[in-house]
Structures are given as structure tokens and as C-alpha cells.
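Re: weekly structure request thread

Next one in the queue (738 aa):
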Amino acid sequence: MPSLVYLSNVPVEEVKGIGSRTGEALRSEGIGSVTDFLLHVPRRYIDRSNIVGVADVPVGEEVTVIGTVKNLSSIRPRKGLVIINATVEDETGSIGAVWFNQRFRLTQLNEGAEVALSGKVERFRGKRQMKSPEADVLSSSKEGLVTGRVVPIHRSVAKMKPGNIRRSMHNALGRSRPIDDPVPDPILNRAGLVSRDAAIQDVHFPDSMADAMRSRRRLAFDELFRLEVALAAKRHHQRQESTGIEHKVDGTLAERFIAGLPYELTGAQRRVLTDMIADLRSPVPTNRLLQGEVGSGKTVVAVATLLYAVEGGFQTAVMAPTEVLATQHFLGISRMIADSGLAPPEEGEGAGLGMGSLFDDGSEPGVKLALLTRSAALVNFAPGIDRATLLSRIAEGGVDIVIGTHALIQEGVDFASLGAAVIDEQHRFGVGQRVELKSKARGMDPDVLIMTATPIPRTLSMTLYGDLDVSVIDELPAGRSPIETTWLSRGEEDKAWDLVRSEVAAGRQAFVVCPLVEDSDKLEVTSATTEFERLKGVFPDLVLGLIHGQLHPEEKSRMMAGFNNGEIDVLVSTTVIEVGIDVPNATVMVIEDADRFGLSQLHQLRGRVGRGEYGGHCILVADPATEDGEQRLRAMVGSTDGFYLAEVDLGIRGQGTVFGSRQSGVGDLRVADVMRDIDLLEIARSEGFALVDDDPELARHTDLRDEIGVFLSRGTDENGDVDNPEEEEDLVEWLFRS
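Done, posted below.
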């Protein structure tokens, strides 16, 4: 009985009806084996039992009709316009179809072919007509009509005609069946799933729509199950082979820090901190993802967590994606440490090498912080320090919390005893950079807290970040007012500027964000530099500042310091201020050409205002050119819930664009859709993790183990050939070795 693993090594040219030329074309589209071809599932189905006769289609409604093409023609009434006309008829009558500037219809359609047209029916010159309908060729004039009740519509590949795809698929199934099933029967029974052999047969040639849906569901489960088993194995492997640190302290330092805060922690903050304390006291290294809305207090929880490690004599690190954010963290954490009475004395006043002796001999040298970026070296225990001296102090263990950018992972930065690390906005770093930071720990695996204010949909938490523990701060501090969001069209900007002027007059500040630094010949959007100059005329009596990513780091720091100190009334910016900027006095966020930003970006930018005692205002200025852009703006106006917006964003963008840089090792979801198949994903996760708990190396499930190796590691080059056959074996060994 052949398996998909075996068939993945059988070239697609072995299928009867697929020659070398077609095979080469299929390979260029990622279909290089019989397995690839069998998993080229229909993109939709047409149920003939629900098709309305042409004579009965109602005007003004969306319908699907099936008929034979008659009178296909084209005209060019003027330059730049081609009109394709066709008549489609069945036994009840005929209907017209028209397409504009879709020349490919002339080659797609031919007279005598059977087609399915889907679209809205209109009346044109007294006759019924479908304007630019979706057209699927069911059979060409030479192939004969398709007689099945349910007609599968495959995505066109390698210029194969629909009938050729169906015939070749029939031949492939005839050669391959019955297909082996590596998923244990008890799992299939609990999930109510059909066998793989039945699924692959019926997904291509179903007798009913119910058969088609059951088959698609089973193949979608297979993709998600392979993914979750791999994530469970990765997590098991990391825990088994890591040398963790048991932070056996009583938490006095963190308690003093929390007691010194000018506010009470929220219930959500306390819940997450409890999770982190349990992690730190465990010998298993922590890898936890901390999610929280903008302003929910993630940084406070992170600092309290790090202080547990510091109390035990370990050093800690905070890595941020930008110098602006790293500097903001240094200033903010230094202030919180000082407010809690934990600031160290200046050098020469009894300062020691760090917190190693705290509470052991009665001395309290204070928590020593440092900032290390490409252009800055600062500490909270000396008025001035050069870079070389700071690096030496870090290497000696003389700094407790080192805050920086990717400069922390550069050669020459060494820690004496790195015990815990916080990585802020992980999606802006590569996975390799997280590994490099952990490697600074010299023989130990530090506990790692990954912090993000970019809400991650639950579906992606179970897939892309499925190897991490996840905590969510889902409660805002008391007193935070909701931010009022308004969408203005171009030409209504004066309303925004009136609000800015009013808020500044009341002693507050404002941001104006633009999508570009400089004007572009290709894009008609507002640039920060041009808007900065223009707004000088709008606000001649106000102090304006300009910040963007192309400024020298020192200039960026100077500009942010001026805004923080209230010296600048209006800061014109690009998205450099998207993450982590905390200016409680800022109450207005104006976003120019807002439709040019992603939904998560818009939500992040909105979160930069209203962080103090005053309510915030976010004004979106845009005339969206696309339906997606309009949908994003409507969502922003309608909700301030970041997790809801993340789900909307995933629905708009689609899972393919979201997987992005974490796609490697995740596999290609050809059938499953994490939004539509959330129930399957939850079942796959539960069953996958339970299977690995019971059989960590899959020693009793070797067929499944081999299949995971094939599906999660086999890439193809431009010829459709496997890039590196050894990768499959390496991945399996890494995932499941004991």
C-alpha cells in the first residue's frame, strides 16, 4: 500500500497523460511529484443540482449557470479597450456575457465548450447579461460534457485544460490507491474524520457536496496535525536538551519594586507575573510569549520578572528592535527603579559589582542598568561611561539589566552570568537573533520572555508560535480612557488641525505620521519631510519636530528627548514611533494616507496617545483606493480591541502573507485555512501534543514521523527538484531524537 512519502519520490511525469514538457511546467509551479499532484485539490465545486436554468435566472441576483459557449467575439471600440462578448446557452435558453480588457478569455473559452458562469445578472438592451462573470471551463468542445453531479474546479496549472487535469488525476489515483494512512485510528474516530484514501479520492471526484467537504476537512486536518506534532516535538526536544536555571529566591526585590509603583497592578498583570515566577523556579528553560494591548503594562511585568533573576545573582538583558525604543526602555525602567528606591548610588559611593550580594550581607548596592546601542553607552550608576568600560563591566557581572538593540548580540559583548532575557517585539527580529542572545549565557539556557504589543490571533498562536507558552495581559490599567478614532477624507484635514491646535492650547502634544520619508515619483502619498515643511505654515506659532529612520541616531534621540520634555508641540514622523514610545502628554495621533498602513500598524500608532490622564484622539486621513484599505479603516473606527483587529487583519491579508519569516519549518498549508478551520486546529493541537507526550520520538509512529520530515522540510528549486534531500533526515533527527 503506497504512502504519500513513497509517492513524493515518484516524479509527476510517471502519471499517464503528463509528458516531460507538462511535467517541467508543473515543477515550475511546485508540483514535482505524484504526491504534489494528488494534493492539488479543487479550489471550489459546482453542484449541478443547485444550478438554475438559463431561462429562469433572476435579474439583479448573483447566480451560477452552466451552458455551452456560442458566438464568442471581441471588439476594440477605442485604444486601450477590448470587449469580449459571448453567448452561453442550455436547453432552456441563452444569456449574454461580457468582459472588458480580459483578452485571456479568447484563449480560455472556445465555441462548443461547456462553461460555468458565476456573477450578477443584469438587463442590457432588453436582454439578460452577466458583466465580467467568473468563468470556469468544465470541458472543451472536443472533450465532451462533464456528467457528474458535483463538478470539481481545479486551479489552472501548466496550461493544462480542465479535462486533462481530471483525466490525469484519475490516472494518478488509479496508480496510487489504496493510500496508506499514518494517523492512528483512535484519533480519526475522535475527530470524526474519513480515511485518507477515501479523502484523496473524493476530494477530486465526489459523489456529493457532503463527500467533497468531508474530504477537504480530512486533508486540512492532516496539514494541521503534522504541524502541531512537529511543534510539540520541537518543544519537547528543547526542554529535554536545555540546561535551565532554577531561580530559587523569595522575590523580595520584585516585591519592593512593585510596592514602589504609583499604582496597583491589574489582575491580568498579577496573573501573568505568577506564570513567569513559576517558570523561573522551574529547571526547564522558559520560552514564553507575552501579549498585551498597547499600554497594558507589559514592561512592568517584564522588569519584575527580571528582578527575580537579578536577586539570585544573575544578569539580565532586554533587546529592543530600535535605538529609540531601547532608549525609551532605559529611561522608563531607570525611572521605575528609582521610584521604587532601588536605584544604585553613583560610583565611588559604595557601589559594588551588581546585585550578587543583595540581602546576603546586608548591603544594598541597587539595581544597575545600562543602555548599549550602536551609538549610545549609558548607565544609571555613573554620570558618564565610555563604551569599553561598559563592556568590561558587563563581562565582569557589574551590570544587572543590560538594555539594547541587536548590539547586544555583537561580538565583544559578553555576560558573566546571563540568567534571563526579554525580547521586545520579536517579530522584528529573526529567530537566529533570539538564539544568538541566548548563546551569550555560557553553558546555561536563560529564561526568555518574548514581549509584543502586536496582538497575535489565537489561530496563529497555535501555529506560528505553537512551541511557546503564551500569556495575555487582557486588562488595561484603571483610569485609561478609550481612544476616540475618526476617519476623515482628503479635504477635511482642517478638522484634524483644529483638534491639534485645541489640544496643544490645553498643554498637550500631537503626532502626525506619514507613510514615506521623502516624496516618491511612483506613489502619490504624503511624505514626512514635505508635510513637516507644510505644517510650519499651518502652525506658525507652534514648535514642530521631525523624526524618521534616516536620521542619525543622535538626532533621533535629541528629537525624542525634546518631545518627551514637552519642548516640541507637534512631532511629524514616519512609523519609527510605531512601537514602544511612551509620552503620556501626547493626546492626538493624525495618520496621513492611513489606508497605506496595515491594520496592526494603525493600531500600534493609535496606542501612542492617550497614555496619561487625558483621553486620546486618533484621526485617520485617507481616501482608500481599494476595498481592503476601506475595510481596515472601518475596522479601526469600529473597535479598539487589538485581538479582534488582528483577526480582521488576518482575514483581509490571508494566512500566506502572515506566515512570512516563520514560514520555514512550518510547511505549506495548501488545503487548511487557519481562520476557517479553527476547530480543526484545536483538535490537531490537542491530539498532536498528546501523541508526542506519549511517544516523544514517534518510535511507535514511524510512518507519521517520516511524513512530517517530508512535508515540513522538502523545498524545491526553480526546476521543482528537492533543494537538499538531507534536510528531511536532519529535521526528523532534530525533532524526534531522544
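The mean pLDDT is 85. The two ends are 29 Å apart (CA to CA).
Next request, please.
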